[in-house]
Amino acid sequence: MPSGAGRTSPASPWFPFGTGDDARVRLVCLPHAGAGAGFYRGWGRGLPASTAACPVQPPGREKRRSERPMTSAGEIVRRLTPELIRTVRPPYAIFGHSTGALCAFEVIRELRRLGGPLPVHLFVGGRRAPDLPVPRTELAGLPPNELAAVLRRLGGTPEGVLASPDLLALLQPLLVADFAVNEEYDYRPEPPLPVPVTAFASTSDHFADPAQVAGWQRETSAGFTQLVLEGGHFAVFEHSAVVFGQLAADLEKAAAIAEV
To answer: Within 10 Å of residue 209's Cβ, how many Cβ atoms?
Structure first.
């Protein structure tokens, strides 16, 4: 079980591993395209005991596989935000990678509109600033070999999956939905968020280079930090010790401020 385990909020399909109510601070983790909550389950072991990792489980994956995956950031935000307000006790922060970063950003905007408790920090990785357009991949019509080529370029997918047309066929509908969330997103200008942002960029990320990731600074009025890691789109997971160190430092500072 993730660190900070103990009493948790009422069960929610969005938070299958609980919300660590007894921890000093919670880190809500939103997954990238094709991934589920299980991808972050081990993060609790890398974070301080005072921090509970709270992975989010969107519909269409793992134990929610029978549910229809959502195809727009707006739909995800409308369904996830009330659950977050109901089940996650402040202080908390949000981490999102790639598509998850975009959804995290829009969830915070929705929280502000609703007057809900805002997170103490936003962490984003593998995603260019939300006001920058994203190239379209048109995954829906790709045959298995071309789909495998796209995923191989991204990284993060086991070679055994890439080599199996049957597994790719099972994964393709979810990927099509998740990529649509990212690629069909319609940015609407709003005032910068009063939430500090830490952005993780990668030297060889073809989908979000460091200059594009640096644009997240435009979305905050509360301080911005960028770390550039060696590697590709999934460098945040390949350099987990560095990432955990930054998360711990930022969360310790944020939790101390929240307790004042």
So the answer is: 15
d(CA 252, CA 260): 13
Residue by residue, DSSP assigns 197-225 as EEEEEETT-SSS-HHHHGGGGGGBSS-EE
Which tens digits make up the pLDDT trace of 6-22?
A: 444 447 999 999 999 99
Rounded-to-integer distance, Cα 50 and Cα 47, Å: 8
Rounded Cα distance between 61 and 177, Å, is 12
Kindly report, residue by residue over 181-236, the tens digit of the pLDDT: 998 999 999 999 999 999 999 999 988 999 999 999 999 999 999 999 999 999 99
Check whether the bond before 194 is cis (ω within 30° of 0): no
Instruction: Provide CB contacts within 8 A for 204, sequence distance 6+.
Output: 230, 231, 232
Burial label for 30, CB within 10 Å (0-12, 13-18, 19+), is buried
Catalytic residue numbers read 98
Cβ(19)–Cβ(52) below 8 Å: yes
Q: How far is residue 67's CA from residue 171's CA, in Å, rounded to a whole number? A: 14
Number of residues that this document lists for the chain: 260
Backbone angles phi, psi at 71, to 5 degrees: -115, 10
Q: 260 pLDDT band (50/70/90 cuts)?
A: low
